[in-house]
Amino acid sequence: MKMYLIGELAKRCNVTNDTLRFYEKNGLLIPSGRSNSGYRLYNDDNLAQIRFILKAKQLGLTLDEIQELLDIRLEATKHSCAEVKAITQTKLNTIDKKIEQLTEIRTALKRINDACCGHVDEDASHCSILSALTELEEKKA
User: Global pTM?
Assistant: First the structure.
């Protein structure tokens, strides 16, 4: 089996050595062994694991969620597909809530932005955006 030093593995995965050390420190990556001189050694399974982690990160999964999926993947026969789906469903629910919140923020920001005349020649003392933000702050108090 092909063995890689950390720099070789990092290059194959298009990440930095520090990224791999971070994953190792957080328990997401365990070197396959050590060389006679003490260097970490990684194999093709580690390569596949890093690619799995990177793909999961692209989907917005947290390190804890990724660790949970890696644990399931390691002992897949002891877990159900429903367990994996529950993790992604929870993430989807979280994302849906964030999208809803961001949509509300966008709507409010667009409303005060559209209400502003934006004249270059006028000073900002009568700016409707500043007024709207001041009103919002006064309502909170």
Answer: 0.78
